[in-house]
Design goal:
Elements lengths: L6 H19 L9 H13 L3 E4 L8 E7 L3 E7 L29 H22 L3 E8 L7 H7 L8 E8 L3 E2 L6 E10 L3 E2 L10 H15 L8 E8 L7 E2 L2 E10 L2 H22 L2 E10 L6 H14 L6 H11 L4 H10 L30 H7 L2 E7 L10 H5 L4 H23 L1 H15 L16 H4 L3
Parallel strand pairs: 3-4, 3-5, 5-13
Antiparallel strand pairs: 1-2, 2-4, 6-13, 7-11, 7-12, 8-10, 9-11
Helix pairs in contact: 1-2, 1-3, 1-12, 3-12, 5-6, 7-12, 7-13
Organism: Ruegeria sp. PrR005
Keywords: Hydrolase
Pfam family, one: Peptidase_M20
Length: about 475
């Protein structure tokens, strides 16, 4: 294997960032409530000698660290938010929460932010030792899981002077992330009716709960008449209370509306709003909605993807050993054949049944389906050429947002995969600093994809980061 000049810097700093990842795993915090995780990232940035800016875009759990001078500005995007209800004992291949109902890192963001910072440190050190002009930024971005932290940061201009953005996401197979993602909006619909005694005077009541239920039924009928690419999900936030002998005077439901592009998503959201208004009309209640978060569809970048692919091919798969493979096999045994097949299909490969961990990287030119989910990295990709990696940190087939992902999140194989991802990102950062033509081609590719209209933020102008509404949910 050939060595990239930046990889020695990655390995030199990896132990500190492994410790950061494990610390964040142990303090899982959800959307806009990542106070301890943010503090840990701030402390490590300062210890590593970065100039730190806190409260980026007015968000208490958003942070930026910067180092270097002159030259292009390279940003590494990190995250550290967890998910509710996924508490799990580490390294145990059976479902056993550490604390029933508590949070857990079921999407690997403890690894995500730490590896992005590791790449930033390695690139910073390489710039310093080689005397190469260039600046490095690490962005600690909150609330990727449904809070659109980066969308608010983009709207506030936090990435306005960035030349190239680089990130990654934990997976079970190493690959350059290709294709787009779904745009989405997260909206609360609040119904207000009139409470009354459900037996003595039901005729005086106007049930907000009835309105909410009718909305949910109406949206279910809408599903037949929306594009195949679209998705609608909902969760009841407030059912109006627990007393069946009271006509519920208030109720709230939270909807996520997704489609291929932001304009298509907003059209579908307008139809969902009409359903809500119809439900209110039928029940003589009132409805108001509040957009909590919204993200665009991801814009891929061919020149940057090709550069990242070259570094992934040069590095090869993570250096997993027999102990790692035995560990992964225990977890893979808890998964279904469909789980394993889905992991392969997500990166465009034919499923295999003989591997618990990858001994390959996905080759260039492999056709992949669009990303089924959504990410606020997408909004960065509209204003800065952006490239991302799928990093191999879990047994093949590990479902996202699962207890199996939480359980493996601080294992030796996860940390090896984290270092591997940082090495690919750091090497790509070196390439874009050394190659002005690559940066120009990346910007030309972005301009061609977004067209003359450019970026339109999917958030309504009045929307603010829903820190109080979503923290802890």
């Amino acid at each position: 294997m050939n060595e990239h000049p930046v990889w020695s810097y990655v390995h030199r700093a990896q132990a500190d960032l492994h410790a950061l990842s494990n610390a964040v795993w142990a303090t899982p915090e959800t959307c806009y409530a990542e106070t301890r995780s943010t503090a840990a990232h701030v402390a490590e940035l300062k210890r590593q000698g970065f100039a730190v800016t806190e409260n980026v875009a007015g968000i208490p759990t958003a942070v930026m660290g910067e180092a270097g001078e002159g030259g292009p500005e390279i940003a590494f995007l990190g995250e550290y938010d967890a998910l509710a209800g996924l508490s799990q004992v580490a390294d145990l291949a059976e479902r056993k929460p550490m604390e029933q109902g508590a949070n857990g890192h079921g999407c690997g963001h403890n690894l995500l932010g730490s590896a992005a910072m590791l790449a930033a440190i390695a690139l910073r050190d390489w710039l310093h030792d080689t005397g190469t002009p260039g600046r490095v930024r690490y962005y600690g971005c909150p609330a990727e899981e449904g809070g659109a932290g980066k969308t608010f940061m983009v709207r506030d201009g936090a990435f306005a002077d960035v030349d190239i953005a680089i990130s990654w996401h934990p997976h079970s197979i190493p690959a350059v992330m290709l294709g787009s993602s779904l745009a989405n909006a997260r909206v609360d619909f609040s119904f207000t009716g009139r409470a009354s005694h459900a037996a003595a005077s039901p005729h005086l009541g106007r049930s907000a709960l009835d309105a909410m239920e009718l909305m949910n039924v109406g949206v279910n009928y809408l599903r037949e008449h929306m594009p195949d690419s679209a998705r609608i999900h909902y969760a009841i936030i407030d059912g109006g209370g627990i007393s069946p002998n009271v006509v519920q005077g208030q109720a709230k439901v939270r909807y996520v509306v997704r489609d291929k592009t932001a304009p298509e998503m907003l059209k579908l959201l307008a139809r969902v709003r009409k359903v809500a208004q119809g439900a209110a009309l039928m029940t003589e209640t009132e409805v108001q909605d509040e957009v909590l978060a919204a993200v665009s569809n991801l814009i891929p970048n061919d020149p940057l993807c090709a550069a990242m692919q070259r570094n992934l091919d040069l590095l090869g798969p993570p250096p997993f050993d027999d102990l790692d493979r035995a560990y992964a096999a225990r977890f893979q045994a808890t998964m279904t054949e469909e789980d394993v097949a889905t992991a392969y299909e997500s990166v465009g490969m034919r499923p295999r049944t003989d591997l618990a961990l990858p001994d390959f990287v996905v080759p260039e030119g492999t056709p992949v389906p669009p990303l089924a989910g959504s990410t606020d990295v997408a909004d960065v990709s509209w204003v800065v050429p952006t490239v991302q990696l799928w990093g191999a940190t879990y047994a093949i087939g590990t479902p996202f947002h699962s207890w199996q992902m939480v359980a493996q999140g601080k294992s030796p194989l996860a940390l090896k995969g984290m270092t591997h991802a940082a090495a690919v990102m750091a090497a790509t950062g070196v390439d874009v600093i050394r190659d002005a033509d690559l940066r120009k081609r990346a910007w030309d590719d972005l301009a061609a994809r977004i067209g003359p209209k450019g970026y339109t933020c999917p958030l309504p102008p009045e929307a603010e980061p829903p820190i109080a509404a979503m923290a802890g949910k």
